[in-house]
Every structure is written in C-alpha cells, then in structure tokens.
Amino acid sequence: MESKESLSGPFVGAIDAGTTSVRFIVFEAGTDNIICYHQIEVPSIYPKEGWCEQDPIFIVNTVNECIAVACKKFTDLGGSIKDIVTIGITNQRESSVVWDRTTGLPLANAIIWLDNRTSTTVEELLETIPNSARGAKINYLRPLCGLPLSPYFSAVKLRWLRDNVTSIRKAMDNGQAMFGTIDTWLMYNLTGGKNSGVHKTDVTNASRTMLMNIETLEWDHNLLKFFGLPKSILPEICSSSEYFGTLADGVLQGTSITADLGDQQAALVGQQCFSKGQAKATYGTGCFLLYNTGTSIVNSNGLLTTVGYQLGRKATPHYALEGSVSIAGAAFNWLRDNMGIIQNTAQIEAMANSVSNDGKPLDVYFVPAFNGLYAPYWNQDARGVICGLSEETTSEHIVRATLESICFQVRDILDAMHKDCKIPLSKLMVDGGMTVNNLFLQIQSDLVGIEVVRANISETTALGAAMAAYKAVDQRYSIESSLSNTAAREPIKPLINGTERNLRYQKWKMAIDRSLNWDTSTLPQGERESFDGA
Ligand SMILES: Nc1ncnc2c1ncn2[C@@H]1O[C@H](COP(=O)(O)OP(=O)(O)O)[C@@H](O)[C@H]1O
Ligand SMILES: O=P(O)(O)OC[C@H](O)CO
C-alpha cells in the first residue's frame, strides 16, 4: 500500500472477474504498482452433479461493491477519483449469460465454463457430423474457430439453453435474447443496463465462444448454423484495447472502459509475453498455458488456437496456442470442502513437503478429472482417480499428489506443443493464486525439466487489463517496455534428473489411462451397451 503523500496520478482501475472471486484493483498508470484493491469470493451453485452455475446479478453487485470499497480505500490514501483515468475488464472466459433485451434481467443463471451438463449436447452435435471417426468429428470445427467440440465452450452451452429453457428459446426466436460472456454482461450493466448498456465483447473472449471465425475475427455464419443459434443474440466484437463505454453510476460514474480481455489472455499481456515464442502459465481455479505464436494461426490437435490480444482497432491481432487444464487449484477446494483433508490452502506446502524426503518413492497419483480432461485429451467422459494407495498412504501423500497432478498436466501440454508444433520451451513464466506455493513451483520445474519464473506480482491478470486500458488513453505509453525487466527474476531450476522425471511421468500416464472414458452415461445407447458388456 502507498503512503498518503506519494499518491499522484494518473491511475488505472481493473476489474478481474475470476471464477473463484472478483476484485477491483487500482494501479499506478503504466506500472505494476498496486495502490489498493478489494476482493470478494463468488459462490458457485451446483444444482445437479456436473452442473456449475453462478448468479449473474450477484456478480454485477459484487463488482460494484469491489469498485466502491477499493475507491474508498483509494481516497482514504489521499487519492482523487478523477485521477483514475480509465478502467479495464478481464474475466473468466466461456461462462455464458442470456438476458432479456427489455428488462435487462438474466433468463437463467450463468453456465460456468467448468459445467459439464452439455456432454449429451456434444454427443448430439457429433451425431450431425457425417462419416468420420470420433476424433475427426471432435475436431470438425477447428479450421473455422480453432477449438474442439467440448462442453467447455459457450456455443455448446447456448445450444443447451435453447434446447432446455423455453423462455430462452422464445427470446432467441423473437429477437429478445442477448448473450454475453462475463465481460459483456458486466459491461452492459456498468454502462446502464436496459437503459443505455452497450452490447460488446473483445476478440479474445469472442475466440472462446466457438462462434467467431479465427481468421476474419467476425461472427461466422456457418458456426451459427451448426449450433442453430441466431446472430441477433451476439455482441459487437471489438479489439481488446479501445473505448467500450462509460460507467453510468457509482463512485466511478463517467469513467471510461477501455480494455476487455479474457483473463488468460490478460495474464499473457501482464506477463509481457509480447514476442512469438514466449509462454506463461496461470494457476488459479484451472491452469492455462498460453504460448504466443505471433501473427500466425498455428493448429494443433491437442491444444487450442486462440486470439492472444489485439491492442487497438487497427492493431494486428496476435494469436496463441493454449493448453487448458480444468482443475488446478479447484482440486484443493475439493480436498477442503468435500474431503476435509485440508482446512485451508496455507497448509498445503508444509503437508506436501512432509512426505518429500521419507526415503521412499512417492507412488500415489491423483488425476482430478472431475469434469473430464481438457488438453491434450479432450475426453469429456474422463473422471477422477487416485491410484497407488497403500496402508501407509496419508493425507499428506494425497496433498502432494494433488500438487503433482497439476504439474504433470502441464507436462502433458508441453509435450503436445513439442509433438504437434515442434515448439521447444526453455522457460515458463508463471502466475496466479497457486504460485505463492514455493514447493509447487519447484515440483513444476522438476517434473517438466525447464526453468520456471514467477511474476513480480500475483495480479498479472488485472495488470494486463490495466495495461491494455491505459494504452487506449495515452498515446505516449509503450506497453512493451513499461515494466521492470523480467530477466532479473530468479528462475526456479529443475533438481531431479531426466530418468527419474520420465519414470514418474510414465506412472502418471498409467493413471491417466485409468481415468479416460470412465463415465459411459453420455455415450449413445448402442455404444453404452457394448461398453457395459465388455
Ligand atoms: N498455497 C497454495 N497452494 C496451492 N494452491 C493454492 C494455494 N493458495 C491458493 N491456492 C489455490 O489457488 C486458487 C485461487 O487462485 P486465483 O488465481 O485467485 O483463482 P481464480 O482467478 O480462478 O479465481 C484456489 O483454487 C486455491 O485452492
Ligand atoms: O477463473 P480462472 O482464472 O481459473 O480462469 C478461468 C478461465 O478463463 C476459463 O477458461
């Protein structure tokens, strides 16, 4: 926190609407210096097994409260609100809200990216693709949007809402429905909702819907047709750094919104991975590794092709390859809330460390595939398994195996990058809530065999949004050279040898085999019967 006398502007605000919590952070403009922030947890709602929702109104109210409290802290420190020159938005991606154009109110809870209710919808959509093997069908839309067919993406969730919620189907048919990912929903509400709210998104968020063409960066007629969705529900696609609208109410009334990026792309910007070949991994609820491929669109079977950022309407878009892991820190929430194995996240490091030097190889492997496996497997029927239990296994072994599971999944992604794209990575920039855990970063470096470099601040996601927002309002600001030199950070180096690393990884692959295709309930009837009889 700054002392009162050192507060001189300009400042930039950033809303970070993550899966687990939302926050509002005030940065000194053009730097990574955090002046103040406020953060509130967002509860998820689990109406049925595999479903995950959040209340869209709660998200808006929470964001408004974070803005109000952080701004109060800011003025208490001696800051002047008029010196907050602009704000940016960054958000959990893919999560989808549909609302009514007249009332401005949601027609259902937000379906969160983690939600797996649409497994059957995916199976039904796969059935509509003619004459090819399952793997080819899953990748059928990749040439258009860069993504495999999976419950993860917005279009599948929208199709489910259309098929299962009568009011949404009607609203879609009569032009009353508006759709948005969380950025769009927030921006609509912050700029006046049903009275004057703007209906916009940016290229990074749009690239996660499965409805945007990855080359033209426009909504794609063929994709809309495939999913049976009307174009009238869609927001305008903008760049990630430009004027979006103005806050209609509250303490920041009149302040402009000049950035919008999906949270993983915002972290790419916040980590200053602006050059082709640079990569970062963000470890929060999930884990997401983005590799900057420059202006080229690179295809890979296991990874996602996505827009990295487009910093200005006339700027050239930069692309990224992404490896997504759905369950990272969320596995610890499960150990805490469902298993009672830990009471809080502060215990994790000591517990995991207590079983590292007991003279025996750790032989417990945990695949936390609660809602299927994302990259590079894209197996929506995978489920969690814990292998290698013995009478001697303790809670500590499970905690350590949980940390290792996230590291092994990053190895899966790096291997896919090597295999598909011949990309050798020698260094990985890391950030996110889990990176406070030093042991975790050492294990990550050990299990992938490359250097790991922690970000200067843990709030790189919000920082990326603030940087993009400031770029839009100050022509003199050079986003590439604005922050301290990342090369000065001490890297964490691998401490185990390649033989041990590969032996451990082989065991991990055995555990993966046991988790794949576990849930047979979404398979078509005929295949289910033959599976049951096998
Ligand atoms: N010391 C720790 N060790 C391992 N995981 C941790 C630790 N502290 C927090 N986490 C995990 O980090 C996640 C929160 O990170 P954060 O970046 O705030 O998430 P998000 O952006 O998804 O809301 C939680 O799932 C939590 O379990
Ligand atoms: O909430 P996070 O930070 O885990 O990010 C969620 C991702 O954007 C989902 O794609």
TrEMBL record:
Highest taxon of the lineage: Eukaryota
Catalysed reactions, semicolon-separated: glycerol + ATP = sn-glycerol 3-phosphate + ADP + H(+)
EC number: 2.7.1.30
GO cellular component annotations of the record: mitochondrion
GO biological process, one term: triglyceride metabolic process
UniProt KW Cytoplasm keyword: no
Domain Carbohydrate kinase FGGY N-terminal positions: 13-270
Pathway(s) where this gene product acts: Polyol metabolism; glycerol degradation via glycerol kinase pathway; sn-glycerol 3-phosphate from glycerol: step 1/1
UniProt xrefs under Gene3D superfamilies: 3.30.420.40
Sequence ranges assigned to domain Carbohydrate kinase FGGY C-terminal in this UniProt record: 280-472
Keyword Transferase: yes
UniProt xrefs under InterPro entries: ATPase_NBD, Carb_kinase_FGGY, Carb_kinase_FGGY_CS, FGGY_C, FGGY_N, GK1-3_metazoan-type, Glycerol_kin
Record key words, sorted: ATP-binding, Glycerol metabolism, Kinase, Nucleotide-binding, Transferase
One of the record's GO molecular function terms: glycerol kinase activity
Similarity-based family: Belongs to the FGGY kinase family.
Name of the molecule in the record: Probable glycerol kinase
Native organism: Drosophila lebanonensis (Fruit fly)
